[in-house]
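Exercise 7b. Backbone tokens:
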């Protein structure tokens, strides 16, 4: 209510250019009415200030309310401590997960090098198997040729013995 006359003076002036050309008597009447309303509101403000200043009035708490607020404060403090403990546990778990993830990454990189080594060994083994198969084929061919020579030698010896036996008879 203290601000109403000031707002009306401010709002009247900028809204209409006609009112800005009013007589000085109208302005003084408005000022007087604003001062009177201020004087009327002054005792109300002082009476409200007295209630606040004394600490009495509607805001005074009863012992039951004080006890209820203390219990609620204790409950809230307990909840906050529980939340704080949970946050600590979660932080510990996150740190543990981060550590395990680093170990996992290290092991994956180690496995990568192991897999590359195994790949190289498999490629080498495949080449060795191919060379071994070629050697076996060559050995089979050589073995067959050797058999032919032995067979030829045995046949020639047999014919020689038959010839010698025929020649002796």
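Sequence design result:
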């Amino acid at each position: 209510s203290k601000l109403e006359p000031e707002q009306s003076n401010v709002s009247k002036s900028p809204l209409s250019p006609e009112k800005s050309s009013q007589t000085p008597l109208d302005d003084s009447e408005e000022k007087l009415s604003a001062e009177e309303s201020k004087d009327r509101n002054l005792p109300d403000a002082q009476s409200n200030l007295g209630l606040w200043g004394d600490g009495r009035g509607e805001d005074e708490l009863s012992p039951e309310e004080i006890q209820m607020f203390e219990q609620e404060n204790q409950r809230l403090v307990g909840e906050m401590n529980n939340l704080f403990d949970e946050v600590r546990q979660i932080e510990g778990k996150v740190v543990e997960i981060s550590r395990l993830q680093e170990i996992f990454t290290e092991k994956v990189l180690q496995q990568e090098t192991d897999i590359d080594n195994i790949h190289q060994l498999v490629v080498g083994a495949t080449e060795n198997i191919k060379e071994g198969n070629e050697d076996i084929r060559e050995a089979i061919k050589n073995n067959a040729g050797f058999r032919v020579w032995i067979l030829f030698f045995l046949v020639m010896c047999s014919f020689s013995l038959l010839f010698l036996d025929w020649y002796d008879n």
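Instructor comment: Residues 65-144 form one domain. Confidence is low (pLDDT under 50) at residues 7-28, 41-56.
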